[in-house]
Amino acid sequence: MPDFSNQTNRATGLRFLWLTLLLVVIDQITKIWVAAEFELYESRVLIDGLFNLTYVHNYGAAFSFLSDGGGWQRWFFTAIAIAISVVLLIWMRRNPVGLWRQNLAFSLIMAGAIGNVADRLMYGYVIDFFDVHYQGWHWPAFNVADMAITIGAALMLLEAFFDNRRDKVENGQG
């Protein structure tokens, strides 16, 4: 059995879960608003030639990957997102609070995963609505959860360049 006694008296990365909760709430509120105010595929221009709000259903993953899978992908992506969230939660529990970049990244990724899992469980698809485009080319529609995952993943990549901080934090120097 693992010994967690040395972790009971120190601040952990779990202190960042407030951000996860906040982003999940914002994500769900924006999706509920879009679903209530827009017809499916309705688009409203926010910045002409650049940015619209367009209500779509995504049955797949990022970029509608496997959206035509026949339904099995709903449970596949749900299971993956739950597994990743559990791993990140355990990692955050083991991380000292001082590893804020890593904890922030994990918190953002969990928020996105949970936000999109909630959609998959409630509706069978993910509600997307941000539509960035330029000269007829459209980036795949996305939502607040997708932004959180993307920013979290980018922070994880940046974190890889700051590895030496971990040694300083663990030795009480950071």
Automatic annotation (TrEMBL):
Q: Does the keyword Cell inner membrane apply?
A: yes
Subcellular location per UniProt equals: Cell inner membrane
Q: Which residues form the active site?
A: 128, 146
InterPro entries in UniProt? Peptidase_A8
The record's top EC class is hydrolase
Q: Where are the transmembrane segments?
A: 16-34, 72-92, 104-125, 137-158
- The source's superkingdom equals Bacteria
Q: How does it sit in the membrane?
A: Multi-pass membrane protein
Q: PANTHER family in the record, alphabetically? A: LIPOPROTEIN SIGNAL PEPTIDASE
**Similarity comment:** Belongs to the peptidase A8 family.
Q: What does this protein do?
A: This protein specifically catalyzes the removal of signal peptides from prolipoproteins.
Protein name per the record: Lipoprotein signal peptidase
Record the organism: Idiomarina loihiensis (strain ATCC BAA-735 / DSM 15497 / L2-TR)
The organism that produces this protein has a lineage beginning with:
Bacteria, Pseudomonadati, Pseudomonadota, Gammaproteobacteria, Alteromonadales
Q: Which gene encodes it?
A: lspA
